[in-house]
Design goal:
This protein has 187 residues and is of the alpha+beta class. It folds into 2 domains: 6-65; 112-184, no CATH class. 57% of the residues lie in helices and 13% in strands. It is built from 4 helices and 7 strands; from the N terminus they run ββαββαββααβ. The protein has helices spanning 21-30, 50-108, 129-143, 149-170; strands at 6-11, 14-20, 38-40, 48-49, 111-113, 119-120, 183-184. A 4-stranded antiparallel β-sheet has the order 2-1-3-4. A 3-stranded antiparallel β-sheet has the order 6-5-7, with no helix packed on it. A hairpin with a 5-residue loop joins strand 5 and strand 6. Helix 3 (129-143) packs antiparallel against helix 4.
Length: 187
Amino acid sequence: MSEVLMVRVSRDGNEIGSYPSEEVIRLRINGTLRETDFYWHDGMVEWAPLSQFLAAEARRLAADKALKEKQEEAKRAERLAAERAKAKEDEDRAVAAAVRTRLENEKADHFRCHCCRFSFKKPKDPATDFSTGIWGLLASAVLMLIPVVGWILGAILAIYCTCLILASHLVSPYCPACRSSNFSRPE
């Protein structure tokens, strides 16, 4: 804490007394001291009108008040930044927990291929290949109407689709990525 400034006050050449700076302001407001009085304190060369002291004190008090307001504003801004950071941290934590829960739920009802490590919702059912094979046979019949190139491509497509139809009844469900039937069931 700073040292209290003691001010000596005189009127008409006679010293009235020595007061702390806050007391001088209070006495001036009450009318005990006049603006025509003079003052002096340590560090001054000569006596000066009391009005100069009051103006200087008013500026000092205004500067002190502005400094305090600025410090309070800085504290409020710091508190607000801390609250925002905490809210952001809480939000990030909640999002991470939600993502973790969602992934665990998805993982719980997903199959996992032991061959390629692919994770899938459900294995490919070869019975769905039956209709694809039928449509392929119809397309090969249309291709057979085109001479030479159509005969070759139509024959290749017909053989492939016949194999697809036959396999659709013989093969067990498989991984959509590598067609392996070696996968684990969901837990």
